[in-house]
Amino acid sequence: MGCDCQVLVLGGSPDLVRFGEIRVRELESAWTRFDDNSELSAFNRRPGHWMAVSQDLSLLLWRGLAGYRLSDGIFNPFMGAQIRSVGYDRDFSELDAVPGDSGGAASFAVADSDVADFVTPLQFMRNRRLAWLAPGLEFDSGGIGKGLGADVVVAELLRSGAAGAMVSLGGDVSVGGLWPDEGWRIGIEDPIGRDDQPMNVVLRDGSVCSSGTLKRRWRNESGDIAHHILDPMTGQSLKRSDVVAASAIAPSGWRAEVLTKMAVVGGSKVAREVIARQPGTALLVWDRDGVVSTIQ
Prior knowledge:
This protein is an alpha+beta fold. It has a single domain (about 5-295), classed as ApbE-like domains (T-fold, Roll). Helices cover about 30% and strands about 25% of the residues. It has 6 helices and 14 strands. α1 packs antiparallel against α5 and α5 crosses α6 (about 255-275). The longest helix is centred in the C-terminal third of the chain and has 24 residues, at about 255-275. The relative contact order is 0.17.
């Protein structure tokens, strides 16, 4: 998944950690868009056709569509062609990475008219495990895959006999079952890079995920600096938000992933509106001056 992964297990067989590692690798091999042989790549090559999909890919697509609907299109996982066009066409380790900064354009908040026409990008016949992608679209797993993957592996570890489990995929964390001490202590890295501002949350159940425009940045073929959070209106790297990073606490990793993207793309106004209608969730948001705010 192009990141460091952690699998921690309480109780159960010692083989469960190895099982968790295998499942992470299976999900990565099915969901990655950086391998032409992955199931997701094969699915993206046949838009406009009903395709048989595995249980793992069906879940990824289903949750991606749920996030798209939940956000009214602010979170848009159907921009695979656009993310490739800005230069993110291979693993991040192979790109010409550049350090981030928090400067940039003025703030904005997404209004109803700012979101692209709301269409049905994906259809399912779930009882037959068939999926249909609208012509001209490609599904990008990058915005939701790590949080969802952590959800999947934690649930499967618990079903396989673990008393408790914590899975972190690139810092997107899900936990379930029993917990050590007072709970799983999860560190949140300051996206501005300040070592004097450590943050921790204690989870007994649920997830915490982070995203922003300051980390995965690269110089594309034209020499411009790009990052992986796209503006759904332009298909280009986002420039017009007052939020540069967000961390979300939610009952599931896939939902936390969606909330972080909504906060970063939509800005602080959307972030407040999102949390107001999502019980059991909270956000940490960083603005362009590095000021962090809690929304709950």
